[in-house]
């Protein structure tokens, strides 16, 4: 922090050692909190007590103790500006404990630690601060200082803990819950509305939104109350100040049957209508709209939620709480929408590294914004930068915060049922903006046409949006977005055909002539649309289907990208990143920069592959311990990617392994094709004295493609055959099993192959999962389709040794790199044959064979023992009668 910083007590430059922190900061702070000399007990007047510090006992006393009602209620420790406050938490907490041992009611409630630069307020029995404030926060009207005042002022502490407990019936408590606990609460509430009110799914959802909005507004008022007392996990206020409660509803039921609707919701609508007419807000609810839920259902929901603090959900959500607690139970195919996992949003916003300062503030846009997740995360990131900028005055901070919230965030969404743009406006409203720049329209319509069914307000929104586009050379500096994966625009639909006419990417440009394409993916269209909407040099950070980056059919698109954009970064996401939405598609996050001119040279590209981002958002509702582990992994990975990209941008050597030359993206742009190279460990293996060979030196196909089969008698032409055969299955654990029986005549047009004992069978689809097996004697003669490669050894190496090598993580990773498909793991023999791997010498081979043989014998012994045990039980207990066998044969259901 700059030493020129000031607050209401003085200048930071006046603080240096502990004495100056006490004289020029703490003493003035205590006075401002309402304490006079008789309430302040300095260090010299305090008893030195023996406290526990780890396993040791030490003597300690703090710098100050504050008395209210004749008893110490909190203590303060002041340190020099360069001292670490963490080193003193244990001493202060232990001192409070010793003081409280003398009283049954634990009068010492808090301790304050400060070095002037940073001040932290703790409950006496907690190591987690209730409030943390910087030097510049100590001004009238600042939120952090207001919280410290509300807790520590002499007036706030005049009520003793015992008296406060006696008065709990007159106070209302809001308690914070975890996100996982909230998921269950909101799922319950939605079921109540859906089942009791007989509404459609979408209608029930919107009624839920209205109730949640009223609850959030009530919670916000509770936190801003001058009478609020905030603690680590709860806030209390006088009960009469709370409007969202069953008590509040029942008191007013004598005047109106549904107070939450007729009073709270109608007051809200009235205020909104005024601001809409004044152009300060866009519509969230329709004029005259009501809460279309029975009073009994509303009271049941109010009772369940009245003591839950929704406005203070865990900080790790970082501003996306609204989207999280709604979408975590309602998102996905049921609403026809796919929502972006919050860790993917955080990754994208981190890569954007948004500018916000006195000289420049990035304008951020999402033209398929859904409920506003990217915009809220961008708002939180920009506000955080403002807060951490010590060169700003308090007035500059407030002005910049307001500017970001009201001028620098633009959202568009076309969805009508439910109207996600309106939910985004609610989201923005609750985070400091009235949603003045959230538009309900189709951003892919370049001309922003009005339709015959548009309401006057929708027409006005479109006119406003159109004028903003026409009045500028680009609306935004940065786009953060996740366009729809699967939506296609077709020329068979007249309205969609009209839109396609305006897109360069809706035409095939081969041979110098333009041929209209029949359908175009909305994701492709958004790439062109964002190019229109961004300012020159602007950046697009978007989730993208990997097929656009690597599939042959999208080569023209990649040529267009290279002509119009500079590719800055590509970060691969795990295949399960969108598991919550049940979207089985391999994706990446790509950063593109709009070219200033065709002469700009494409620089090296930052590429990285994530393993945790998105996995922290599981598809199930039930919370498991692994979820917290995955969440931490995702957070750590986001930080690592952000740091590496920053180092890459600065040309630091730490990022060199993640830098891809411009020439590498001349065709494909996906991370697997450009960053990953097969044979990456070969040099290391050879340097360590290992013998390295290609797979085709160890094994070869029994049924080679376009060549003579080694066993023609084992090839079955289903067009000419009619016999009952049994499929061989190869499991992920590398063992084979008998599958279904089929008649070959029922599968005409295919070829099947019999396998023989000792054959190595490789699944084309699931080899990288471990589906590589050796055929045992009991499966000799079973058949496989052409989705398997059946091999025999040519090097004299035992098949079981080759099997062991092929199922190792290193080899399966190499197979995955060799697989050329996008988002698929299919591996053919042509690709697998090029695999390079280390092979064991004779001694190691002999050891491996002996160990594997011992394992097989043990497994056989186990099977025989289980059979013998079952036979004995059936015999002794009369559990194997022929009548039972007949019943099973007669009534057993089909497989």
Low-confidence stretches: 162-168, 314-325, 327-337
The assigned structural class equals alpha+beta
How far the N terminus sits from the C terminus, by CA atoms, comes to 71 Å
Mean pLDDT across all amino acids:
87
What strand order characterises the main sheet?
16-15-14-17-22-24-23-25-26
Query: Could you tell me the radius of gyration in angstroms?
Result: 34 Å
Number of strands: 37
Helix content: 25-40%
Subunit organisation of the chains: single chain
Number of helices: 27
**Portion in beta strands:** 15-25%
Largest sheet: 9 strands, mixed
Which key terms come to mind for this protein?
9-stranded mixed sheet, 6-stranded mixed sheet, 895 residues, alpha+beta, 38% helix, globular
Architecture overview:
The radius of gyration is 34 Å and the shape is globular. α5 (179-197) packs across α6, α5 packs antiparallel against α9 (295-305) and α11 crosses α12 (373-388). The longest helix has 35 residues, at 842-876. Helices cover 38% and strands 19% of the residues. The relative contact order is 0.05. With 895 residues, it is of the alpha+beta class.
Produce a short descriptive summary.
With 895 residues, this protein is of the alpha+beta class.
Map the helices and strands.
Elements (H helix, E strand, L loop, with lengths): L5 E2 L2 E2 L6 H15 L7 E3 L6 E5 L2 E5 L3 E5 L2 E8 L10 H12 L9 E5 L3 E6 L7 E4 L8 H10 L8 H6 L4 E5 L3 H19 L3 H24 L4 E2 L3 E5 L7 H7 L6 H19 L17 H11 L15 H10 L11 H11 L11 E3 L6 H16 L5 H14 L1 E5 L6 H11 L7 E3 L15 H15 L5 E6 L6 E3 L3 H7 L6 E2 L6 E2 L2 E3 H12 E12 H5 L4 H10 E8 L14 E8 L10 E5 L15 H25 L9 E2 L10 H4 L7 H6 L3 E4 L4 E3 L13 E3 L6 E7 L5 E8 L7 E4 L5 E4 L8 E3 L8 E2 L3 E6 L5 H8 L2 H10 L10 H4 L3 E4 L2 H35 L5 H10 L4
Parallel strand pairs: 7-8, 14-15, 14-17, 15-16, 17-22, 23-25
Antiparallel strand pairs: 1-2, 3-6, 4-5, 6-7, 8-9, 9-10, 11-13, 12-13, 18-21, 19-20, 22-24, 23-24, 25-26, 27-37, 28-36, 29-32, 30-31, 32-35, 33-34, 33-36
Helix pairs in contact: 5-6, 5-9, 5-10, 11-12, 11-20, 12-13
